[in-house]
């Protein structure tokens, strides 16, 4: 019961944060939550589904552009456009999956990366998406300026917690069993009736949909989008760092990884070169001494503590 | 129930299954015997869809399933217990069976729980339902193989040397279990080296040698056949 209460208190505190935080802090908090959501989405595909994608930044960009194009051409409120951006990326993922899934292992990874590159090039060359110059948020007028920061934060919180709740629920469902079985032993899983393609397709579409929504939330408060920012490879670097440091295939991983990532970034912000060195060194160190990431180390610590407590 | 005709499989120049035909009706148990390398396990690979056939057809209730992938065959009702157990290390015994009943047969809710409980009870794994695949000993892993196959709601059950490593007493219990499974809606194929166990449970025995069918008849006739005695019982196997 106690962890449940703790969780509820934490969620309430997070929801009330905009009433006690200044603009800068709220912006940073939104950014952290977007990274948590993106890492949770990537973790679902890589950690639980066993599909390593280095091309998720492509879907961050598609989600962001979906928000800008939808609110420009259709009478939808920007907040309502965020779930729609998720649907757009989901459809795109669904259409690409038959091609990508013909590729296995490392070829799938190359395919994902190529897909992200193609998205960027198409968006950059296409007048409809504003070309290389990008697009302003045409619907900015309909946003309340005073509550802008808080709203963006709440949306980021909703996507981050929603992604986490979804992964939590999925892993407790029959679908989660199929996913775990496939990851353990594909032939054995197929031999009791698990259809690998359908399971992987579902997890892929969910993962890119969440990624697209997080991307849309991230570009909402910027009021402007460019192909360079939307399809920035740094999205991918951050997501992989956070997920692996935090603990791949663990639900608390993205939270712990994001915490460490932002601590490093904020304390080393004075030097971009030292910041990258510290990031790389931390990644190598954690992979060497803590294969399960921070979440794995925390698990071991807690279980050791609890066995000590139960001993007379 | 299951009709197999002229099944063929070669690996390179080596023909492992060479024109095997047989029919197993509902309620029947067909024992499959043969020395090592006779093609028994490959025959099961072909029936379960783990390996594509080079020729011949497999029909389940008249439907041609020869080209279907393994997961679809399980859903159609061809379930298999592997000779070398393949438990999922992180899944509990109960989760294995829930997965088999839901993915293999599309069950949900109370029907699913009932099927899982029945498979647990039949295989004597009830008290180990919470253990993970990684924690199981060999004997329990073998039981889990059978339980998984049962939980998927089979019409045809392929049992590949599931008695390996069992004590004499446990083999008797297994024979009773297999006899108890016999019902008009289920055809059983059982590969086994332990001749007396196979004899006790089977209605007919199919003897394979170098991928070919040597004889297929009632157990007494097969075990008395001179070719079988020479090939199999004469060898240093448990007679």
From TrEMBL, chain A:
| Keywords (A to Z) from UniProt | Cell membrane, Membrane, Transmembrane, Transmembrane helix
GO MF assignments: branched-chain amino acid transmembrane transporter activity
Residue ranges of the TM segments:
80-100, 106-123, 151-171, 201-225, 237-262, 274-298
Q: Which InterPro entries match?
A: ABC_transp_permease, LivM-like
What does the UniProt entry say about where the protein is found? Cell membrane
Reading the lineage from the top rank, the first entry is Bacteria
In what way does this protein cross or attach to the membrane? Multi-pass membrane protein
Q: Does the keyword Endoplasmic reticulum apply?
A: no
Database matches in Pfam families:
BPD_transp_2
A cellular-component GO term for this protein: plasma membrane
Q: What is this protein called?
A: Amino acid/amide ABC transporter membrane protein 2, HAAT family
From the broadest rank down, the organism's phylogenetic lineage runs: Bacteria, Pseudomonadati, Pseudomonadota, Alphaproteobacteria, Rhodobacterales
From TrEMBL, chain B:
- Gene Ontology BP annotations: D-alanine transmembrane transport; L-alanine transport; L-isoleucine import across plasma membrane; L-valine import across plasma membrane
Query: Do you know which Pfam families this protein is assigned to?
Result: ABC_tran
Q: Which residues form the ABC transporter domain?
A: 2-235
A GO MF label: L-valine transmembrane transporter activity
Q: Which UniProt keywords apply?
A: ATP-binding, Nucleotide-binding, Transport
Q: PROSITE patterns from the xrefs?
A: ABC_TRANSPORTER_2 (PS50893)
Q: For this UniProt entry, what's an example GO CC term?
A: plasma membrane
Q: What is this protein called?
A: Amino acid/amide ABC transporter ATP-binding protein 1, HAAT family
Organism, by scientific name, is Lutimaribacter pacificus
């Amino acid at each position: 019961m106690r962890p449940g209460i703790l969780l509820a208190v934490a969620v309430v505190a997070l929801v009330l944060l905009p009433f006690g935080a200044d603009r800068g802090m709220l912006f940073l908090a939104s950014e952290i939550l977007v990274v948590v959501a993106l890492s949770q989405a990537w973790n679902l595909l890589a950690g639980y589904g066993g599909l390593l994608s280095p091309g998720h930044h492509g879907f961050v960009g598609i989600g962001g552009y979906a928000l800008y194009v939808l609110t420009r051409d259709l009478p939808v409120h920007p907040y309502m456009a965020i779930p729609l951006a998720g649907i757009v990326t989901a459809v795109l993922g669904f259409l690409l999956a038959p091609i990508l899934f013909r590729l296995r292992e490392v070829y799938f990874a190359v395919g994902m990366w190529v897909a992200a590159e193609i998205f960027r090039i198409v968006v950059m060359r296409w007048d409809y998406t504003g070309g290389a110059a990008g697009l302003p948020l045409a619907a900015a007028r309909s946003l309340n300026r005073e509550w802008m920061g808080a709203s963006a934060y709440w949306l980021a919180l909703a996507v981050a917690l929603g992604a986490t709740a979804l992964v939590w629920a999925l892993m407790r469902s029959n679908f989660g069993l199929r996913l775990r079985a496939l990851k353990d032993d594909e032939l054995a899983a197929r031999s009791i009736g698990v259809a690998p393609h359908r399971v992987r397709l579902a997890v892929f579409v969910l993962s890119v949909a969440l990624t697209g929504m997080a991307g849309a939330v991230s570009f909402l408060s910027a009021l402007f989008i460019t192909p360079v920012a939307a399809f920035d490879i740094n999205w991918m670097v951050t997501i992989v760092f956070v997920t692996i440091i935090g603990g791949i295939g663990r639900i608390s991983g993205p939270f712990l990884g994001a915490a460490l990532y932002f601590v490093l970034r904020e304390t080393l912000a004075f030097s971009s070169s030292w910041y990258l060195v510290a990031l790389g060194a931390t990644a190598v160190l954690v992979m060497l001494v803590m294969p399960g990431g921070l979440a794995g180390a925390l698990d071991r610590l807690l279980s050791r503590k609890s066995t000590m407590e139960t001993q007379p | 129930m299951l009709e197999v005709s002229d099944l063929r499989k070669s690996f390179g120049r080596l023909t492992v299954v060479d024109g095997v035909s047989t029919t197993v009706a509902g309620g029947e148990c067909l024992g499959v015997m043969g020395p090592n390398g006779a093609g028994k396990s490959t025959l099961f690979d072909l029936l379960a869809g783990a390996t594509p056939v080079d020729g011949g057809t497999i029909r389940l209730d008249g439907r041609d399933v020869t080209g279907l992938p393994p997961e679809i065959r399980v859903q159609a009702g061809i379930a298999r217990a592997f000779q070398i157990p393949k438990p999922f290390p992180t899944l509990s015994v109960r989760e294995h069976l829930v997965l088999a009943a839901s993915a293999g047969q599309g069950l949900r809710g109370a029907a699913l729980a009932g099927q899982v409980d029945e498979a647990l009870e039949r295989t004597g794994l009830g008290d180990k339902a919470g253990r993970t695949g990684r924690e199981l000993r060999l004997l329990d892993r073998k039981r889990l193989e059978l339980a998984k196959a049962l939980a998927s709601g089979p019409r045809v059950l392929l049992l590949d040397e599931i008695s390996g490593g069992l004590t004499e007493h446990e083999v008797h219990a297994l024979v009773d279990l297999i006899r108890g499974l016999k019902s008009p809606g289920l055809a059983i194929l059982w590969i086994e080296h332990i001749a007396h166990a196979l004899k006790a449970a089977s209605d007919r025995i199919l003897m394979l040698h170098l991928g070919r069918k040597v004889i297929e008849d009632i157990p007494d006739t097969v075990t008395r056949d001179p070719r079988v005695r020479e090939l199999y019982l004469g060898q240093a196997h448990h007679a």
